[in-house]
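Researcher: Good morning. I'm working through a list of sequences from a screen, and I'd like to move beyond sequence-only analysis. For each chain I'm collecting a predicted structure so we can compare shapes side by side. This is the next one on the list. No need for commentary yet; just the structure.
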Amino acid sequence: MTALEIRQLTTMSELYEMQKVEAAVWQMDPIPVHQTFTALHHGGVVLGAFEENRMVGFLYSFAGFDGKASYLCSHMMGMLPGYRMNGLGEALKFKQAEIARTLGYDMITWTYDPLESRNAYVNLHKLGAVGAIYHPNHYGDMDDELNRGLPTDRFQIQWELDEKKKKPTVSLDVELVLLDGGSHGEPMIKKHLETGHVADGTTYFVAIPADFQTMKQTNFTLAKSWRLETGKVFKKLFDHGFQARDLLRTKEEAYSYYVFTKE
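Model: Good morning. Structure tokens for this chain:
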């Protein structure tokens, strides 16, 4: 594979090319070009990843405001099959952050599916961002290739661009795992969570499948069970003020583990 070039998209023709990548990834109608073009010229950042002259990935973000502060809202990132395992997503995010700083942004926010372990690992471990808010079934029913048939639960990421503090190294403590995988791959909520007691000042761990998309294709019923059972645990943790701080992941293991702390 040749080296990929990441650059800002600035023309209508480039945005039409981005639409083709988006449609190929999600198998649904892409965002209208008049929308992405308008966002681009009003504080948005739109990036394309190119192999020679062919676009193979993109990242689309627009200006956001919550009534108190402005920030960059990173809405969509997609890569063609064959380009998803080589660090391209991470490279797109770091380029986005570089440009966002020059535009005066202090924070970037976006949502992602908490059962997608690769995305979680990039967001929390490599970028050092935080899963700050849990949104159950955030987008309602979606009929695209990646979301069809399941509640669209999402974690909302907050990536503070001026954050200098390094995250502490955490090792898995099996006594503090709130949900783990069973002997047949099923999600198992641990007994100490069922008591309703979640102690402050503690680090908790929650397992997720290492490859949720493959699980959906091979055993949809099992995948749905993971969605529903993890949702119960996530809700309890976020309701008690915990946030997702990291993801422990190795390629050889069947499960990855979220690290939840309260600060």
